Amino acid sequence: QVELVESGGGTVQVEGSLRLSCASATFTFRRICVAWFRQTPGKEREGVASIESDGTITYADSVKGRFTISADNAKNIMFLQMNALRPEDTGMYYCGLAVSPLVDPLKADYMDYWGTGILVTVLS
Would you state the pLDDT for residue 73? Predict the structure, then answer.
């Protein structure tokens, strides 16, 4: 059983910052892809940022230049630094983990495990 635990969500004003964390005590991040996704009611879960096992980082266009993904493989923890937040960034944020080969690291279908999610609210 892979357990992923997100933390760091909350409510901020527009242009504010938050740092999300995703930790796993049961799985190593080193050999797989880890990613952040977000979802709002009635919409599909969308990829925000990912780190693949070869170090490749991918961002959704909507967050480029504002969000930064990083991972500490030794500690099995991943971060998402979110700056210049906008109301449209509001949603449940999930960390995902893929152990199988994937084509698109920002597509939810390729993730094998998920955290339970954490809420981010950006007030205008």
Answer: 85
Task: Report DSSP state, residue 14.
Answer: T
- For residue range 88-109, what is the model confidence (pLDDT) as tens digits? 999 999 999 999 888 899 999 9
Q: If DSSP codes are grouped into helix, strand and coil, which group holds residue 87?
A: helix
Cβ–Cβ < 8 Å for 24, 36: no
- Distance (Å, rounded) from C-alpha 77 to C-alpha 98? 15
What is the C-alpha to C-alpha distance for residues 14 and 42, in angstroms, rounded to an integer? 23
d(CA 108, CA 111): 6
Could you tell me the sign of the dihedral formed by the alpha carbons of 86, 106, 49, 99, in that order? positive
